[in-house]
Inverse folding.
């Protein structure tokens, strides 16, 4: 690929890929493309301060080692979760200093979430443990010479991929680096020229999942709103010991989501993750309804509809017809499995049932085929025994990683409304996962985020990471999936 072609493709990554039922016409798409070409490319300066370690406000937090479950510290989750919130100016209290306020609240929250101020250490047989040493989390303050209004005018609106992301969270970590003996949370508060601010942070995935991150940041906001608060509204609970393996271990199910025994674990560099292109796709509620209508089943969930669409599009884009593709479905077990996990549990409670198909069958058959594969895989883990079997499988097989080759994961975080978390500036204009490119392998994971575009249209945003030369093909394949759902209405049975 020559330099000119690469530059053209790179510029087009910022173009919005909107699928709006009423406006999805050739004319509307041409106008959207022309408008995007006219939008200015943002370039602004961000002055980032030195890192500080914020420790729990009191020195009396326990000094101990905490157990991590086999779900917490499995190889496939030894990575990081980045999030971001964009807040407009606070007109009622324009002199408030967000960085100072959040820093002070952070010290209070860490009293309750004191393991987050610790470090992961290596233990026996490949296990990790949390050393509750109270060394603290990384905090940075920054200033940017740009306003929220200018950010909202960027190509495609205020959504990932964000311009200058490497300056909005300079401590962002890609891949499985800095897992042990390093801070478990990095936070940066960037004050904007208009009085608004950006809160960006990344958690070590072994200490929490997305729901756990949501609990932590909600507690942080509560202490910002009321510095004299006695305790967060949801008290955090550790409870990882509930998920210990049995003696003796019992493997009750096949676990095709993991590598077979003695299979070497593939490692990737941060460069492997960063060299992929970042883009995002917005599905309006009308688009989602169209996909469901095409399936002729009103019971199909939004997740199943979007997951099948994205899986098929990605397979057409990246895989050979005679290859085998796997699809992992993250299932949160914290609310419906036994033994029950306590309220306020912020560890990982995810299972990853696996759907498998030949690539040519997945893309050659109707979308219903992909939906059925996902549904069947998910139904297969809807029992208490399956979670315990996963824990025992990991214990017996030496902590295997996820099967990587041909595997795709779509993780639904759209119900975690990070944008509703209020630090005193009102709801965020955007709140949620900050970028694609997370997960155990480059391009393997697509998060789904709840989103409202600049015109007020609500829907779901899919964050995608792909080779740069594959982006246009992927966009085209998704567009074909949506167009076929819109124009091919289901026939009446009468």
């Amino acid at each position: 690929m020559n330099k000119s072609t690469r530059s053209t493709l790179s510029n087009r990554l910022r173009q919005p890929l909107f699928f709006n039922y009423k406006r999805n016409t050739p004319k509307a798409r041409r106008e959207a493309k022309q408008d995007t070409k006219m939008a200015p490319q943002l370039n602004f300066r961000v002055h980032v301060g030195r890192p500080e370690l914020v420790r729990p406000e009191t020195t009396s937090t326990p000094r101990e080692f905490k157990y991590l479950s086999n779900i917490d510290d499995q190889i496939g989750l030894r990575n990081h979760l980045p999030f971001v919130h964009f807040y407009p100016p606070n007109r009622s209290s324009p002199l408030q200093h967000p960085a100072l306020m959040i820093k002070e609240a952070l010290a209070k929250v860490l009293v309750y979430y004191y393991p987050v101020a610790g470090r992961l250490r290596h233990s026996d047989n490949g296990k990790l443990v949390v050393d509750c040493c109270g060394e603290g989390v990384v905090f940075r303050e920054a200033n940017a010479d740009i306003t929220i209004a200018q950010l909202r005018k960027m190509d495609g609106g205020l959504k990932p991929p964000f311009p200058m992301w490497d300056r909005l969270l300079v401590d962002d970590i890609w891949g499985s680096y800095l897992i042990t003996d390093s801070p478990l949370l990095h936070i940066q508060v960037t004050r904007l020229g208009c009085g608004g601010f950006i809160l960006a942070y990344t958690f070590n995935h072994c200490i929490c999942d997305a729901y756990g991150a949501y609990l932590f940041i909600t507690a942080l906001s509560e202490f910002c709103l009321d510095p004299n608060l006695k305790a967060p509204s949801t008290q955090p609970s550790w409870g990882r010991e509930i998920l210990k393996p049995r003696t003796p271990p019992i493997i009750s199910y096949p676990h095709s989501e993991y590598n077979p025994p003695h299979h070497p674990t593939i490692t990737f560099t941060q460069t492997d993750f960063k060299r992929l292109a970042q883009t995002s796709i917005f599905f309006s509620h009308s688009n989602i309804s169209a996909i469901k209508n095409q399936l002729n089943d009103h019971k199909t969930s939004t997740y199943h509809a979007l997951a099948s669409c994205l899986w098929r599009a990605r397979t057409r884009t990246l895989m050979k017809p005679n290859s085998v593709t796997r699809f992992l479905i993250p299932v949160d077990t914290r609310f419906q499995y036994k033994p029950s996990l306590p309220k306020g549990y912020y560890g990982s409670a995810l299972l990853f049932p696996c759907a498998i198909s030949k690539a040519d069958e997945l893309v050659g058959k109707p979308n219903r085929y992909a939906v059925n594969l996902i549904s069947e895989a998910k139904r297969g883990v809807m029992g208490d025994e399956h979670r315990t079997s996963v824990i025992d499988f990991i214990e017996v097989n030496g902590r295997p990683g996820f099967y990587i080759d041909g595997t795709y994961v779509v993780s639904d975080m759209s119900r975690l409304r990070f944008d509703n978390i209020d630090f005193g500036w009102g709801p965020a204009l955007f709140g949620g996962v900050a970028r694609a490119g997370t997960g155990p392998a480059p391009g393997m994971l697509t998060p789904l985020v709840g989103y409202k575009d600049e015109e007020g249209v609500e829907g779901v945003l899919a964050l995608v990471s792909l080779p740069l030369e594959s982006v246009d093909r992927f966009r085209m394949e998704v567009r074909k999936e949506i167009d076929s759902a819109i124009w091919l209405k289901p026939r009446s049975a009468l």
Summary: The longest helix spans residues 302-318.
